[in-house]
Amino acid sequence: MLSVFLDSITKPSELKALIDYKFSPKSKNKLSHQKALETDASKKKCYYYLNKTSRSFAAVIQELDDDLRDAICLFYLVLRGLDTIEDDMSLNLDRKVELLRSFDTIIYQKGWTFNENGPNEKDRDLLVHFDVVIDEFLRLKPGFQKVIAEITRLMGNGMADYATGEHRENTSVATVKDFDLYCHYVAGLVGYGLSDLFAASGLEDPSIADDKKLSNSMGLFLQKTNIIRDYREDLDDGRQFWPKEIWGNYADDFSDFIKPSHREKSRACLSAMVLNVLELVPDVLSYLSKLQNQSVFNFCAIPQVMAISTLALVFNNLDVYQRNVKIRKGEAVKLILASTDMDNVIAIFREYIQVISQKNETSDPNFLKISMAVGKIEQWITANVKPTKKSLIKTNNNSSSIFLPILVGLIGMALVQYFKSL
């Protein structure tokens, strides 16, 4: 934990966010959730697996209103189980396809467990104890069950199609159309399901589930950003999700981008991938602007602001080809605390879009297209933002103040002493 504070030591606003987050009182929903788990061992086990398998969503799921919280927890665990089967390259293909295409019926089979995953599959323990997930799924309201089962059916069959070679060229995604379809299966459908669950809960207007294009874009924005960020990890693991229709314009082989001699082509390819994602931003903002319930808004907004900050970080950043780059924890916490209403979210998006615009170089072959994409986002923001809204992510306009180094040093010394005392 000390390293997290040290990463933000020169950014007082991030230090403040980390301290506020660490010592803030638990929310009403969080307290209600913890109380419910005290008397329900089966449900507690499900949330144990949620925390174990989710790096990003566990905390925000547990802040949701009561009925919806459990439904989305089970939705996540069911899809995580499905994804664990799809990801496991040690499984026999026929067996894998059989499981993917039948998983929507498996979740109704009490007592079903699965121990055929390879020993190194990171989430295999979830499937070994999947009977607990099924028991809790069957306790959900029928309306919630129906949504989860339908999305599981669609996603499982989509994954099976890709596993058997449909929409793929050898082991890679061939076209942008196929890239969109893959991301729809693994993330856009999650957007469908979440919107349907929001509507079924009564916390949001039923119309939120009607606009499938916006729901799909919410999922695609997260998935595509992660795919860009995870280039090196996927390359090392033998996975390839960038569409050849894009990267093939800049290299003969997908691994060429890690070569120092390929530097400028690598930069251009990265900007082409970011351009593909930027086009989704107006849809994301439109969707968020329709939400009415506070816990639902927070749940949806936080991952999206994390994604736009990550997109700004990876743009024109050749480190993507060498390692998995991530925003600082202090910056992430600051965004979490700021993502409380639509005006704040718009201000956050505007800041990171400006970062992308500033990093956009005229020598880049995609310069004009990126400028146009940024312009469309700015048009949406201009039509919806309150002109008096202040910046939410800039750290300090007077960084040259002689008092700042002193303040930072004192805070750093205090934090070091605090963590030594633990």
Structural features, described:
With 422 residues, the chain is mainly alpha-helical. 67% of the residues lie in helices and 1% in strands. It contains 21 helices and 2 strands. The chain has helices at 2-7, 12-23, 28-38, 41-53, 58-61, 66-87, 93-106, 124-128, 130-137, 142-163, 176-201, 212-229, 231-236, 244-247, 263-278, 281-289, 294-314, 329-338, 342-359, 367-384, 403-420, and strands at 168-169, 172-173. It has a two-stranded antiparallel sheet with strand order 1-2. α7 (93-106) runs antiparallel to α10 (142-163), α12 (212-229) runs antiparallel to α15 and α15 runs parallel beside α20.
Q: Ends: how far apart?
A: 11 Å
Envelope shape:
globular
Radius of gyration: 22 Å
Taking pLDDT < 50 over at least 5 consecutive residues as the criterion, the unreliable ranges are: 394-410, 418-422
Beta-sheet strand percentage? under 5%
Largest sheet: 2 strands, antiparallel
Helix content: 55-70%
Mean pLDDT: 86
Structural class based on helices, strands and sheet pairing: mainly alpha
Number of helices: 21
H/E order of the elements?
A: HHHHHHHHHHEEHHHHHHHHHHH
Count of DSSP E strands?
2
Strand order of the largest sheet: 1-2
